[in-house]
Specification:
Layout (H helix, E strand, L loop, with lengths): L4 E4 L9 H11 L8 H20 L5 H15 L7 H15 L6 H12 L4 E5 L3 H10 L11 E3 L10 H11 L6 E5 L2 H10 L3 E5 L16 E3 L2 H11 L8
Parallel strand pairs: 1-2, 1-4, 2-3, 4-5, 5-6
Helix pairs in contact: 1-4, 2-3, 3-4, 5-9
Protein name: Hydrolase (HAD superfamily)
GO molecular function: hydrolase activity
Organism: Streptococcus salivarius K12
Length: 244
């Protein structure tokens, strides 16, 4: 199969989304078992994904989404009755830590090699425009991605995993799904969503998430580290590069 284009997810794909989360959890909820951070983070992302469609449909505000996901997550790990104020204090600290994010080094190497070889690339991310744009600026994404090839769900009326947002992205970027890779870390939103829209997914499963057995046969590449992702993509595009 010959691929011509690549679209990337943003959160926990281009940068480590868990590191700022871990720092904020340690500060705001010091009694929690930080050894459970992988599971805490997974559940935080789960509850965020549960609430996000309601936010997209304007049934809840972004503030209500943030309170909901914090309260539901902490309840699961033994911290009950988180107040709205505590949830928003956590969000404020989390946003501060998010301002310290940097691009994953191997992803930087991958994007540099793709840029040097003139491979068309784009981004499709769920989230509010202001927040996602800020993250893109912090990690230096604009040196590789044209702004017109960055799709943020809030501007579309759809969100991943809806097929409509993948169709919108393909049309906006002038990419044929049959010739395009989609790279992301979340199975339902990124992998299943892009596959159902006839893209070719690469699951960046660096959190070693498990999926239902009936999903295991879905045609998709799966990698478990940033270096593995870098090497796979460059191999698919027949790009030779020495990163030693």
């Amino acid at each position: 199969m010959t691929y011509k284009n690549i679209v990337f997810d943003l959160d926990d794909t281009l940068y480590d989304h868990q590191l700022p989360f871990k720092r904020s959890v340690e500060k705001c909820f010091p009694t929690i078992d930080i050894q459970q951070i992988d599971n805490i983070y997974k559940r935080f992302r789960y509850w965020s994904d549960v609430a996000f469609p309601k936010y997209t449909k304007k049934l809840i505000s972004i503030e209500e989404l943030r309170i909901f996901r914090c309260q539901k997550t902490m309840e699961e790990f033994g911290i009950d009755s988180i107040s709205r104020t505590e949830a928003l204090d956590f969000q404020a600290d989390y946003e501060y830590e998010l301002d310290q994010i940097t691009m994953i080094p191997e992803i930087h190497q991958l994007l540099l090699a793709l840029h040097e070889n003139h491979i068309p690339i784009g981004i499709l991310t769920n989230g509010p425009v202001d927040l996602q744009s800020r993250k893109l600026q912090l990690i230096g994404a604009y040196q590789y991605f044209e702004k017109k090839k960055i799709i943020i769900s809030q501007t579309t009326g759809y969100s991943k995993p809806q097929q409509e947002i993948f169709d919108y992205t393909a049309k906006k970027l002038n990419f044929l799904p049959s010739e395009s890779l989609y790279i992301g870390d979340t199975f339902i939103n990124d992998i299943e969503g892009s596959y159902n829209a006839r893209w070719h997914p690469i699951w960046f499963n660096h959190r070693n998430r498990q999926i239902a057995k009936e999903k295991e046969e879905m045609p998709a590449y799966e990698v478990f580290s940033a270096s593995e992702l870098r090497d796979l993509v460059l191999g698919l595009f027949d790009i030779n590069h020495d990163f030693k």
